[in-house]
Amino acid sequence: MSAPFQFKQFVVEQDRCAMKIGTDGVALGAWIDLTYEPQNILDVGTGTGVISLILAQRFGASEIEAIEIDEDAYEQAISNFENSPWGDRLYAYHASFQEFFQEVTDEKYDLIVSNPPFFFPTHKSKDKARNQARFEDALPFKHLFYGASKLLDEEGVFAVIIPYDQEEAVVSIAKEMYLLPSKIIRVKGNESVLLKRSLIQFQFKVDKLHEDELVLEKERHVYTEEYMGLVKDFYLKL
C-alpha cells in the first residue's frame, strides 16, 4: 500500500492509482509559465490529481476540471480534491479524453495540461490499470493534440511533458493541429546523463520559441538550486 504524499499545502493519497507521485507531474505543474491568471484549466489524465492541486495552489482564481479514464484513479482524485483547501473549484470527470472533447463543444480553456501516457506497448505488465496509465495507445498523441486544439482558447496554452526522444515527433503532430511550441525546457537527472524529458508549452500564436535546460541533481539526493527553486513551494522538505 502506498503511503500518502505530503506536500506543503495539501496531501495526495495514491494507494488506488497505478502511477504514483513522481518528478514529472510535479515539475510540469510547477513549471508552467503564464503571463496571465487562467480562469479555467483542464487537466487531461489527472491520475492522483497532483497537477490540478499544484495549479490550484498557484492560480487562486482558476476553476480546474480534471479528466481520468481509470475509475479507481478518478475516485481517488475526487477524494484528494475534496480534502484539499481548494475543493470548491476542483472538478473531476470519469471519461476518456476522446469522449470528453467530442461531447464538450461550447467550452474553451485558458490552460490545458497533460502528463500523458507515453510509453510504447513493448513490455506491458499484467496490470491493466498501470498499462493504461503508462502506455501511449490509451491516449495517442494525435488524439491528445487534436482534442487540445478543439478545446483551447485562441490565446490559451497547452502544456505537456513527454520523453525527450519523442520531442521532434510530438512537435510535428502539434503543428498539424496549428499548435506551435512557445517554451521548451529539457530535463535530465544530472550533468552526466542524457536528456530525459521535454516540458513544452504550445500556443496557436507564437512570436519566439524560448528554450532552456534543467538538471535535477548535483549528486544523488542533492538537488540543484534551479530545481529547488522550481518546486520549493510544493515539496515539504525543500
Note down, in words, how this protein is organized.
This protein is α/β, with parallel strands linked by helices. It is built from 8 helices and 12 strands. The strands form 3 sheets. An 8-stranded mixed β-sheet has the order 5-4-3-6-7-9-8-10. It has a two-stranded antiparallel sheet with strand order 1-2. Strands 11-12 form a two-stranded antiparallel sheet. Strand 8 and strand 9 (197-203) form a beta hairpin. The chain is globular and about 45 Å long. 39% of the residues are buried. Mean pLDDT is 91; it is low at 119-125 and 127-136.
Features:
globular; 238 residues; 8 helices; Rossmann fold; alpha/beta; two-stranded antiparallel sheet
Structural domains: how many: 1
The number of helices is 8
Gap between N and C termini, in Å? 25 Å
Q: CATH fold name, please?
A: Rossmann fold
How does the SSE layout of this entry go?
Layout: E1 5-6, E2 11-12, H1 23-31, E3 40-44, H2 50-58, E4 63-68, H3 71-82, E5 90-94, H4 97-103, E6 109-114, H5 128-134, H6 141-151, E7 152-163, H7 167-176, E8 180-188, E9 197-203, E10 210-215, E11 217-219, E12 222-223, H8 225-231
Parallel strand pairs: 3-4, 3-6, 4-5, 6-7, 8-10
Antiparallel strand pairs: 1-2, 7-9, 8-9, 11-12
